[in-house]
Design goal:
By secondary structure, the protein is mainly alpha-helical. The chain contains 7 helices and no strands. It has one domain.
């Protein structure tokens, strides 16, 4: 009776069948995230955690301008937008480090939650030109993340999906860093002189 060599290397033409066997074999695993991406996702996890810490520092410097009763809506918007993007990136990159997990599922769940939070937040605010630009970028990024997540669920060995999600993380971190930096600079605080002159 012929045995099956689990350590054998297969030709690329039969790779899908091999992947099917690995996924359904007892104790078999299917690596959705290639090993070459693990260092990248580990670095992104650490960077996102550091930026979340920076965001908390920014808020604690002027807490009354973000969470106070008289806090400007722009301050709440900056803090919430930065936090949403960074949390999405942090948990998505951390999920990619879990062995034998399908990155598509957390990508879809996190993107839907982030998209819902972003739309709910901007629905309550006055939509200036900058906020509309951020809303467009955010909704586009989260929608693209949903598409790539579904692709990875359907095609777990699709390396292009992992690569595209990597670029989404980089873009999301860049946008969130910009929002956190604006919060740290106090750009959400209204100038009393300008407010007085506008009233007069």
């Amino acid at each position: 009776m012929l045995g099956f060599d689990h350590d054998a290397k297969f030709h690329a033409s039969i790779l899908p069948a091999t992947a099917y066997y690995r996924r359904n074999a007892p104790g078999g695993t299917l690596a959705v995230v290639p090993g070459s991406y693990l260092a990248f996702f580990a670095a992104v996890t650490g960077a996102a955690a550091a930026l979340i810490g920076l965001l908390f520092v920014s808020v604690t410097l002027r807490p009354e301008t973000v969470f106070g009763e008289g806090a400007p809506e722009r301050g709440k918007s900056l803090a919430a937008a930065a936090f949403t993007g960074l949390v999405n990136t942090f948990f998505l990159s951390m999920s990619a480090l879990v062995p034998s997990s399908n990155l598509g599922y957390p990508a879809v769940v996190l993107a839907v939650a982030s998209l819902s939070s972003t739309l709910r937040l901007h629905g309550k605010l006055f939509r200036s030109r900058s906020q509309m630009a951020y809303l467009l970028l955010s909704t586009s990024a989260f929608t693209f993340q949903i598409v790539e997540g579904v692709y990875l669920i359907v095609q777990p060995r699709g390396n292009s999906g992992v690569e595209n999600l990597s670029f989404v993380m980089i873009g999301s971190m860049a946008i969130s860093l910009g929002r956190a930096w604006a919060l740290l600079q106090g750009k959400h605080i209204e100038d009393p002189k300008k407010t007085t002159s506008a009233i007069n």
